Each structure stands twice: as structure tokens, then as C-alpha cells.
What we know:
The structure is a single chain. By secondary structure, the chain is mainly α. The chain has one domain: Four Helix Bundle (Hemerythrin (Met), subunit A), CATH 1.20.120. The protein contains five helices and no strands. The chain starts with 10 loop residues before the first helix and ends with a helix.
Amino acid sequence: MPFTLxxxxxxxxILAVASSTFLLNxxxxxxxxxxxxxxxxxxxxxxxxxxxxxxxxxxxxFNCAQRAHANFIENQPSxxxxxxxxxxxxxxxxxxxGATWVFGxxxxxxxxxxxxPKGRLFGFAVSALSDNSLRLMAMYAxxxxxxxx
Length: 149
């Protein structure tokens, strides 16, 4: 049986939020790169060693920026999937939750690099709440499509 999918008129908001994550990834790239230069941690080392961190506080900042970026790219694909699926049924709610996730991930990166691991907690809470809401909405939308509704 063929399946025809029509995008809601408001789906452009979903695309705009999804596209904003590409800019956020670029921000992470620059944040990590500038922290690496300031720390003196040479390529190809992915993180500063414990010895480097003990001698140079900027090495810890680099590790935090690197981990924030890694955490972002670990979570971005599933977020984009949930956003795309939930947006088929609930475009405006999904776009708002998606924008909230992007804000949370920005706060996560800024907090982590400026205040260390404890600084990421606010951004984590904001992004986790919005991401889990999107995931539930995506599952609900999927079930509704399977049921033909």
C-alpha cells in the first residue's frame, strides 16, 4: 500500500531549527579550536593528559570544550530524527521544543567551558527535557501514522 506524506505548512520552522544545529556545531568547532590553541595541546591528541591539566588550567578548559562538542555530535542525530518525525504531526510544538534544545545545547557548551563539568548542568537539563519530549512526540506520531490516523 503506498504511503503519501504531506508536510504541514509550518514544516519550514522544523527545517529552520534543524539548520540552526549546523551553526551550533560550527560554534563548537571554533570553541574547541580556540581552547586547543590556548591550552597548547597539539594534534592529534584528542584531550589533554592529567599531567597537562595539572600544570595548565587552560588544558582543562580544552578538555571541557572537546567533551561538550563530542556530546553535541553524539546527540544531534537522534535529536534531528525526533524533530523531523514529531514535526510531521506537531510542527509548531516541535519547532519550539527544538529551539529550546538548541538553546540548551548552547548553554551546555558555554557552561561547560566556562565553569567546568558542573557548569553544564543547566544546559543539560534544558536540552534533556526538550529532547525527551520530542522523542515521545515522535513515537506517538509514528504510531498514529502506522494506525493510519
